[in-house]
Design a protein that fits this description.
The protein has five helices and seven strands. With 161 residues, it is an alpha+beta fold. α1 packs parallel to α3. The longest helix has 14 residues. The protein starts with 5 loop residues before the first strand and ends with a strand. The structure holds magnesium ion. The site of magnesium ion has 5 residues, from β1 and α1.
Length: 161
């Protein structure tokens, strides 16, 4: 059974606040707002970790790295990715492909798409042509459309290492 591919899905929402650093998919952006969170609030990396953990049949990110644990305060989400991938390797699995959607008004993602793909490829140990990310605006609808929050959705396929 371990040689069959496994699909995983992760979704994460963060409120946006003025003056917060804006880090998306591990890439820093110059923006007037950034995601609020106990860690650096990187919604894409949180959703990606949850997708990978789900596919591997492991506990979710919030269980493994509780936001009540002071050790996780202000932590770079890249560290969650490295810990996640260590668990995946232990199970003799690897990421085969990953696709991410980030719904947000801020920041504009297009200029940094290549940088975000490269960072995701590095963090999840997958060739860059097997990982993708696209940005969508909220079309002025709901909290995302008003620029109050961002939402990341990630699907991932895992296979044998
Ligand atoms: Mg989160």
């Amino acid at each position: 059974m371990n040689d069959l591919p496994r699909i995983g899905l992760g979704i994460d929402v963060h409120r946006l606040a003025e003056g917060r650093p804006c880090i998306v998919a591990g890439v820093p952006f110059d923006a007037d707002r950034g995601p609020l969170g106990h860690s650096d609030g990187d919604a894409v990396l949180h959703a990606a970790c949850d997708a990978v953990l789900g596919a591997a049949g492991l506990d979710d990110l919030g269980t493994l790295f509780s936001d009540r644990d002071p050790a996780n305060r202000g932590r770079a989400s890249a560290e969650f990715c490295r810990s996640t991938m260590a668990l995946v390797r232990e199970r003799r699995l690897r990421v085969l492909s990953m696709d991410c959607v980030l719904e947000t008004e801020v920041p504009k993602l297009k200029p940094a798409r290549a940088a975000m793909r490269a960072r995701l490829a590095e963090l999840f140990e997958v060739p860059v042509d097997r990982v993708n990310i696209k940005g969508k605006t909220g079309e002025k609808v709901d909290a995302i459309g008003r620029g109050e929050a961002m939402r990341a959705t990630v699907v991932v396929l895992l296979g044998p290492a």
